[in-house]
Design goal:
It comes from Suillus fuscotomentosus. By secondary structure, this protein is α+β, with helices and mostly antiparallel strands. It is built from 8 helices and 5 strands; from the N terminus they run αβββααββααααα.
Length: about 230
């Protein structure tokens, strides 16, 4: 049952590698943030999606190839991220001289597993066959997935699901998004994006959109023919 307690597993990983160098660090300032003391990024910059991954405690799959080429350290298949928050509690106060430090463990998922397999295939010169990829995936899952229960019990399943749900790590305090921090420009951008979605296929708009039902007809024909 311990393998279903994600928070406990993350805490054990952080304690085990307490003195190890982080995979990367994020420095948070009132109006921008930096990655490993590098270039400054605004919070609405597209690269800020990496902060969403840190919030969700998942490895940023979009940057996995970059991490691999930069030889970023991994610990038991996870990444350790150090957060340094220089933002004051009150908006009018100056940035903190000594930041609030915390560490977060980022875990892999099915998407990162697939990305890793693609990277391994690239290193081998794209020589992997479908069978070899499936066998490799099976071996990775055997080493990383929780033990399989071959005698299912409804009560045990409910307990496991509840443990998994309540033990999911919460959003790091330094990355919790508050409504007051949303800038008017960012809020207006979200409103514009939602308006475009709502106007999709609106006949009053000057668009020549002709819906196509070829895939639907093809599926119905297949069902009627072979069932």
């Amino acid at each position: 049952m311990s393998c279903y307690n994600i928070t406990r597993s993350a805490e054990q990983l952080l304690d085990l590698h307490e003195d190890a160098a982080p995979s990367f660090s994020v420095h948070l300032y009132p109006d921008h943030w930096t990655l490993n003391n590098g270039s400054k990024f605004l919070y609405n910059n597209p690269i800020a999606s990496i902060l969403d991954d840190v919030r969700a405690h998942r490895i940023p799959v979009d940057y996995l190839e970059l991490f691999d080429s930069a030889r970023v350290p991994f610990y038991d298949g996870c990444m350790l991220v150090e957060l340094l928050d220089y933002r004051p509690k009150k908006a009018k106060d100056p940035p903190l001289e000594k930041p609030e430090r915390s560490r977060v463990a980022l875990h892999p998922n099915d998407e990162t597993l697939w990305a890793n397999l693609c990277l391994m295939n690239q290193r081998s010169g794209n020589k992997f066959t479908d069978t070899e990829v499936l066998e490799l995936e099976a071996q990775i899952l055997l080493q990383t997935a929780p033990p399989l229960c071959l005698d299912p019990d409804p009560h045990l399943t409910r307990i496991a699901n509840h443990t998994l749900r309540v033990s999911t790590p919460s959003i790091p305090i330094s990355l919790k998004r508050k409504a007051a921090t949303i800038t008017p420009e960012e809020d207006e951008s979200d409103k514009t994006r939602r308006a475009k979605i709502m106007q999709f296929m609106n006949q009053r708009q000057n668009r020549s959109h002709a819906p196509r039902y070829f895939v639907l007809f093809q599926s119905i024909f297949f069902l009627l023919t072979f069932t």
